[in-house]
Amino acid sequence: MLFVSVQLKAEMRPVPEKSGSPTVVYQVVNDTALEKRISLLELKDQANKDWTDTNHRMIDHWIYWVQVLLAVLVIAFGAVGYFVVKKYAQQAKDDAEKAAANAKSDAEKAHEQSLQAEAFLSKIDGYVQKAEVHTDVLAKMTEKGEEQLTKISLEEVRTPADKEVIKSIIEESLKENTLDSLKNLIHARAIKAYDDENFEEALRLFNYYVDLFDGDGNIYFSRGYVNGMLVNYKEAVSDWSKSIILDSNFSPTYYNRGLLFQKLGENEKAMNDYRKAIELDNKNVFAHINRGTLYNELGDNENALINYEKALQLNPNIALLYYNMGNAYSDLDEKELALDKYDKAIKLDPTYVDAYWNRSTVYERLGNKELAQKDKAKAIELDPHVEERAKNNNK
User: Fold this and answer.
1) Which letter does DSSP use for residue 160 in this model?
2) What local confidence, expressed as pLDDT, does residue 160 receive?
3) I want to staple 254 with a disulfide (CB 3.0 to 4.6 A). Which of 105, 162, 274, 276 is the partner?
């Protein structure tokens, strides 16, 4: 403030310039202050510049470290990405290999189905050829009427005895004039003949069906029954074997074939068929009963009774079952148990001849001659040949 005041006064009153005067002193002091101010300003500018430079360096430093951090992050994410990509690539590779394996499996299945289809089509071609032949025959019959029927109709019939049967079937089929109607008619006639116990006619009809259309599992199964009733056991076994080839999951076919194997004395084959029948249908009560009977015939009464007990659980109302259990207990010399089972068999079937006869033998072993004689008399009353049959069975 002092210098400013002096300066104002100096402007108002100029003074001569003399060495060592106050004006000179003021000027010197003023110059010195100005220099200092300039120095301060320069220092300030330098400080600002240094600050700016420092800030720039700090910013450059931070930018550098940010770039380093970003580089590290890029590398880290790149590494993570690499492993993620590698994982998904491996998964994609595994999926592709699995898809390829599935495609290969599907291709193999398709090829197998194609082969089956070709075989089926080949078989169909055979049916079509037979159908065409038969259609021609029907057409000729339709055109030429009854007179031609006797000339053309039965060229394929193997025996004269078939003639009237086949003639009536063809006459009925002409009403529909279709191959399916003819097949159904032949099958229906064969079943009716079997139900009427006309087994010879049933066999002729089934033979005609097989010759004309080839057989299916059901036809061979039915014809096996007819052959069995005619005591053509080997032919019946052959029919049921063909039926099994065409349908291997039908329990009664194995049971029936096992029964005939047992009759033919082929016990191992019979046992295998009973086992398979039970495996396919554990509720096949007669398979259990007959396997028990086979065990009984082989002298293994313990296993026989195991099978009978299983059958008893499935159906407790079969006279044959109690009769067979009575035989097993009788063989084991369990006389009271044997009597109990024979009693139950007779209760279920009062005409059971063999149950009366076998019960009489147990009464004899127990010393009860009166009851033994009574049962024998009843058995002979029901079947006069029972004693002879019993003797033959004991040989």
Assistant:
1) G
2) 52
3) 276
Per-domain residue ranges of the chain: 2-84
pLDDT, residue 92, reads: 64
Count CB neighbours of 300 within 10 A.
14
What is the pLDDT at residue 108? 72
The predicted structure's pLDDT at residue 257: 96
Question: Which is nearest to 356 in space by CA: 377, 385, 328, 332?
Answer: 377
Helix axes 319-331, 285-297, angle to 10 degrees: 20
Q: What would you measure as the largest C-alpha separation in the chain, in angstroms? A: 187
The rounded distance, in Å, linking the Cα atoms of 206 and 247 is: 18
CA gap 291, 305 in Å, rounded: 10
CB-CB contact of 345 with 378 (8 Å) = no
Sign of the CA dihedral running 209, 211, 214, 218: positive
Q: Are 182 and 168 in contact (CB under 8 A)?
A: no
Q: Determine how many CB atoms are found less than 10 A away from the CB of residue 158.
A: 11
CA 145 vs CA 23, 35, 61, 154: distances in Å: 165, 150, 117, 14
3-state SS of 179-226 is HHHHHHHHHHHHHHHHHCCCHHHHHHHHHHHHHHHCCCHHHHHHHHHH
Residue 267 CB neighbours (<10 A): 15
Separation of alpha carbons 330 and 67, rounded Å: 104
- With bands split at pLDDT 50, 70 and 90, how would you rate the model's confidence at 110? low
Q: Alpha-carbon distance 200 to 161, whole Å? A: 10
Residue with structure tokens 């149950």?
355
